[in-house]
Amino acid sequence: MNPPNESFYLAVGNLAHEDGFYMNREEALERVQRGVTRIGLQWADIIGPVRHRPFVDARKMVSLFLREQGWTFKQIGKVMNRDHATAMHHTRTLSHLMEYEGKTRLKYQEFCSA
To answer: What b/e sequence results for 42-68 when a residue is b if at least 16 CB atoms lie within 10 Å of its CB, and e otherwise?
Structure first.
């Protein structure tokens, strides 16, 4: 059986994970980098030290997306030059923000559609 293509991930999102289909590491990194670009930032902003809200929110989006792809918190933190606890915090807080802030939810959808 061939692994699903990128449009499959966009079409079914998290449902793909129920059957164990995840993007490989390179695909996931490419997708988050395109997502960061789509929301108007650069990858250097994600791995950089600046803690302004747009940058932190983008890091949260990267964390949640990679976590949904089966990455460990340690792997997520390492790719963003952060520790695992930061990745855990980002994942948890973005889920909460999306529940209450429509703009954040729309921005995450835009991020994921890259």
So the answer is: ebeebeeeeeeeebbbbbbbbbbbbbb
